[in-house]
Structures are given as C-alpha cells and as structure tokens.
Design brief:
single chain, mainly alpha, Rna Polymerase Sigma Factor, Chain: A, Arc Repressor Mutant, subunit A, 2 domains, 10 helices, 73% helix, 0% strand
Length: 195
C-alpha cells in the first residue's frame, strides 16, 4: 500500500484508463481533502460541497474513460478546474437554491468505501426529499411542471420550452416563481435543506 501511495498521479491515471479501478481510489484519497476544501470554500454548505465533489469525479471518470484526458498539465490542477467549473454551474443553475436531484447517479463514495452516508444521514436525506416532493405538489401546475423538468430531469430551458409549447422566457419565469414559492414553502414548513 505504501508503494501505491508513492506512485505518480500520471501513472495512476494511465493504470485507471487501462482498467485498474483501484488507481482511481488512490487518486481520490490522495487529493480528496484539498479538493473538498476548495469546493467547500466556494459553496459553504457541506451537502452541496459533497455533491459537487461527487460530480467532479463523475466527470473525471467519464473523461478518462472516453480517452479525452491529455497530460498537458498535472492531474490535480485539471481536477480543480473541473470542480471550479461545476461550482460555477451550480450557482448558475440553482441561483443559490439547492438542487433536488434523483439519487440514481453513480456514487463515488462506493468506489472509495467512504462511510460518510451512514444510516441516519440516509434517513434524514430521504425525509428531506420526501418533504420537498410534498411541497412541490403544492405548486401551481405550470410551475411544478417546469421545476420537475429542470431539477429532476435536468432539462435545459430550451428543452422545457419545446416540451411545454411556451417561450423560453415564459419557462424561465415559471421556474423563477416556482423557486420563490418553494423558498416560501420551505421556510413556512421549517424544512432544513443543508447543514
């Protein structure tokens, strides 16, 4: 194990591309603290930081598996750029409102065996998702439709516009009102979304 920890990043990346899944776990463990601290310093919420951290490595994995990674720079700066871009995307997409995503995506912690989501946290997370879904049902139909398409189905406003038969501006307006109403409902029902 000590030998693996001294293996250069570039070698671990090549090993992962060749199919050695454990090389990725070594890379993640090696850079986890620095990357997570960087993300957390930008978003300031643990749950969002964990989501962005997870999304960063999902993107890293996809890029490596497609063979689109080039060795121009070092691995860590490349991963930090991905994380930085995802933080920007997060704020653009949510306008500082937490995203309510389905949890069907790949879970990076299953690769590295991190026990961060213990049973209690999972129960709390599931309860929050249930509470939020119940609140979504209270929205007017047009707002609910746009919010579900955007947050759960990850559709662009262009796609939402095409699917609903309204202009992009109308879709944006409905989303804006949906988020404003969700904030009010969350406050009125005293739901805590983040630590």
């Amino acid at each position: 194990m000590m030998r693996k920890n001294s293996t250069p990043d570039s070698t671990l990346v090549k090993d992962f591309i060749k199919g050695n899944e454990k090389s990725l776990a070594v890379l993640i463990n090696r850079h986890q603290q620095r990357l997570y601290s960087f993300i957390y310093s930008k978003v300031l919420y643990r749950d969002i930081a964990e989501d962005v951290f997870q999304d960063t490595f999902i993107k890293v994995i996809r890029t490596l598996k497609k063979g689109n990674y080039n060795e121009e720079g070092k691995f860590l700066p490349w991963v930090m750029r991905i994380a930085h871009n995802l933080v920007i995307d997060h704020f653009r997409k949510t306008n500082r409102m937490p995203a309510f995503k389905n949890t069907e995506e790949f879970d990076i912690f299953s690769v590295i065996g991190d026990g961060n989501l213990n049973a209690e946290k999972k129960m709390i997370q599931e309860q929050i998702c249930t509470d939020v879904r119940a609140l979504i049902e209270e929205l007017p139909a047009e707002q609910k439709e746009v919010l579900i398409m955007r947050m759960y189905k990850d559709m662009s406003f262009k796609e939402i516009s095409e699917n609903t038969g309204v202009s992009i501006n109308t879709a944006l307006g409905r989303m804006r009102y949906a988020l404003m109403n969700m904030r009010k409902l969350i406050e009125n029902n005293k739901i805590i979304l983040v630590d």
